[in-house]
Design brief:
mainly alpha, Arc Repressor Mutant, subunit A, two-stranded antiparallel ribbon, transcription, DNA binding
């Protein structure tokens, strides 16, 4: 979706709407830097003050965030994501993990009932990526990202856009949690999760929601216990 010249009515609101849409569609993904002010002025066909006011308003809502000397970055995909991000600032890692764990449990159950063949292929691919990262073992960040990709694939297969979106909004918090749990060498609690993740996928493939939920709870219990151990 390219930017286009904005009509001379409600200029700020129109610019805000265009930027929000670019973020929502993923053309400006979370974590990316938006174009510099001169580029936005040229592409939108509006004045600098209009662009500044629009960017300032989106920063106030939490969708954008300035980094002095480095530009403005996308912090969240929408207002919900911005609100979740703000709330998680005041939550500890275990609290955030427990909430996201409830999403994982329900996602596994729904995915067993609703997944398509394409969903299953994506889940299997993500599981293989997680196992590859585990086998390499020397790159904690790669393992964390592979683990998150697996759980996102399961959430997407649940066939509930609201659940998938809420689940994804907790990714930043879970990423920090996993970085704290996954050390070098990897704890035994994480080692056991290789088999537990496979059990989740097998249950989803069989179309067995009870087994998928049980496997997810088994995995989540081990991970939560590892996190509690670190916090003691």
């Amino acid at each position: 979706m390219p930017l286009h010249t904005t009509p001379r009515t409600n200029l700020v609101d129109s610019v805000i709407a265009q930027i929000e849409e670019l973020i929502r569609q993923g053309e400006w993904p979370v974590g990316s830097r938006i174009p510099a002010e001169p580029a936005l002025v040229e592409q939108l066909g509006v004045g600098r003050n209009t662009v500044r006011e629009a960017v300032r308003a989106l920063a106030h809502t939490g969708l954008l965030g300035p980094r002095p000397g480095d530009g403005t970055y996308v912090l969240a995909r929408d207002g919900l994501g911005a609100a979740v991000r703000r709330r998680l600032r005041y939550s500890d890692a275990l609290e955030a993990y427990e909430v996201r764990a409830s999403f994982e449990r329900d996602a596994a159950r729904y995915a067993a009932v609703r997944r398509t063949d394409e969903d299953l292929a994506r889940i299997r691919e993500a599981l293989a990526g997680r196992e590859d990262a585990w086998e390499r073992g020397d790159d904690t960040s790669a393992f964390v990202e592979a683990d998150l990709a697996f759980h996102r694939a399961v959430a997407a297969a649940a066939g509930n856009a609201v659940l998938a979106e809420l689940y994804d909004q907790f990714s930043d918090s879970l990423r920090l949690t996993l970085h704290s749990v996954v050390g070098a060498p990897l704890p035994e609690a994480v080692r056991r999760q290789v088999a537990e993740h496979t059990a989740i996928v097998d249950a989803i493939e069989r179309g067995d929601p009870e087994a998928a939920e049980k496997a997810a709870l088994h995995h989540l219990g081990a991970a939560a216990e590892a996190l509690r151990g670190l916090s003691r």
